Amino acid sequence: MEKETRSYLLRLWRSAENQPWRATIEQIAAEHAPQHFAAIDDLLNHLHALTASTTSQPASFGNEE
After folding, report:
1. Where residue 4 falls among pLDDT bands split at 50, 70, 90?
2. Is 64 a domain residue?
3. DSSP letter, residue 65
4. Which of 62, 11, 57, 59 is nearest to 34 (CA)?
5. In a domain, 62, yes or no
6. Structural domain for 35, as ranges
7. Distance CA 36, CA 58 (A)
């Protein structure tokens, strides 16, 4: 299986302390427009959809080669 990676620039902001956090992601080294999210949950749902697979494999962290 070929290793697949995606890199994103993530920007989080809110217009005032009592306002919800908003997010923008921009894929690095690709000509895609930035994607804006009105809520962090929307961002997380989007990332989950991007990484959803028909085969479920446990996530691994740390040194991967």
Report:
1. confident
2. no
3. -
4. 11
5. no
6. 8-51
7. 29
CA-based nearest residue to 32, from 50, 14, 52: 50
State how far Cα 21 lies from the chain centre: 15
DSSP string, 5-64: ---EEEEEE-SSTTSPPEEEEEETTS----EEESSHHHHHHHHHHHH--SS------S--
Convert the pLDDT of each residue in 17-28 to its tens digit: 999 999 999 999
Q: How many independent structural domains does the chain possess? A: 1
Kindly state the tokens that stand for 45: 């749902």
Instruction: Name the pTM for this structure.
Output: 0.65
